[in-house]
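Incident log entry.

Two folding requests arrived from the same account within the same minute. Monitoring flagged them as a possible duplicate submission, but the sequences differ. Recording both here for audit purposes.

Request one:
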Amino acid sequence: MRCCALHRNRVYYPVSVIILICFILFTAGWVQGVSGFGSAMIAIPLLTLIVDIKTAVPLCSLASTVIATYMTLQLRHSFDLKKIGPLCVGSVPGIALGATLLKTVPSHIIQALMGVFLIGYGVYNLFFIIPPRRLHRRWGYLAGFLTGAIGAALSAGGPPTIIYTTLNNWSKDEIKATLSGFFCFASYIVIIAHLATGLTTQTVLKTFLVSGPFILLGTALGTYCYRFFKKEIYLKVVFTCLIVMGIMMI
């Protein structure tokens, strides 16, 4: 149930809701700190249980920017602009399209699409293993476009880029650095798009400022814990949870 008070077109959330938001974003930061991606996939389904999706998406985009910036600084030694460049170029027109869709399409339609997307993404990762190969750079432009469009509309555009990077025969460090660098770039573009379309309201900004320290703490803790986890088993648990959340949203 969404609990809030309205005053002069502003939304004021009670302390209990703010605490839940901080906990959700802390968890999202921890997940991405451990795996290198997935903060929005965790945060959006949980946030939409307590706030409207048009508040959840720009709030999650701000949180994702903090997380991606932190991860970028952590992995800057493994960057390769030739790998990140096509993704960044393709994402710009995609972000413009996605921000327009979020502004004009009813919330319940976006939420239903998000549920289908979560289920499909979770099932794909649980049951399909595709051998890595060397993909042509043009696929990077397409992955960037799709990631930008889905990210701006639903703040969960990671899967196209994740699939693209994991299909390539790159090392673990190359994959994680490419994801982090691209997500950092895309997050800042998405923030600009949300500001330009009026989606980032005062309520969103104030909530973000309160939750910011928890986002950073979760990301830092997740990065520290990463060395103690068997990544394959952990990701299977995450993908299963995403399928359940997608069903709940639909």
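Request two (distinct sequence, not a duplicate):
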Amino acid sequence: MTRISKQKRLMILAGGAIVALNWALTPAFAQSTGAWPSKPVRVIVSFPPGGAADQIARIISQPLQEALGQPVVVENRAGAGGNIGADAVAKSPADGYTLLMSSGGTVSINPHIYARMPFDPTKDIVPVAAAARVLVFLEINPTKIPVANIKEFLAHLKANPGRLSFGTPGSGSSPHLAAEMMKAQTGTFATHIPYRGAAPAMQDLLAGQIDFMFDPGIGLNHVRTGRLKMLAVGSPKRSPLFPDVPTLDEAGLKGFDADSVFGFYAPAGTPPEVISRLNREINRILGTQAVKDRVASLGGEVMPLTPAEFAAKASSDSKRFGALIKERKIIGD
């Protein structure tokens, strides 16, 4: 009986050791075999439906879902220039199941215009993958401003100080900064009307409630149909979609560049192997012709970057836009 008891005890101890070893090895084993993701991945877009961030998120979400083998659900949480959605992600578990899709302004502009941020974009979220460089296009409602080109528009703007209004997706957004750059370089003044996203601003431009707008690419079909007139591109180079439309640099506003890089972020502390997997999959998706074409239809261009390159771009933009924000005394909504 004594010998049997010892054997039983040895078996129990051995079994316990095996269980403990299995528990110890489970995380590493799960990661090495690609256990993530084992449930749906949520992408929070920090702007309303219909805007550039929303459309880019949805363009990428379907092929990403196929690559990951799990649903990728897009959810819009707009407000405060992207801060509401970004804050929700920053406070989510760092497990790879909650991502942020936002404009570069969330990390490179908002800290300069909001006296108090609900999260620290340099500590609470980390870059995962850039998605697209989004160009901005200066467009007018031709029924309200009967001008033929950018030079006539600037002359009209100078001749009517304070009488024209322009819409933006919100204070501090790249379209807003584009307008402020233009005003600063031309010595003109127009009334800023901030909206909760690009889509509602575009609706009011079409309705004639505002006079002009720097469009992040959502109104290009209206340009093609003639409901809107495109006067210039607020980027360093012309758009392949509208090769005859000059840049503002060509129109005399030297060095004009208001482009923004949209991309994906995750809560700080997200496992590096998860971020690497996401970056690899998203960059592969950006390399497909179908996605290139769909992003180009918005007037943008895909921009595959490593997380480190994406972070460096955000830092560079922060310095560039921060100087303008300070000079123009821009504050958040």
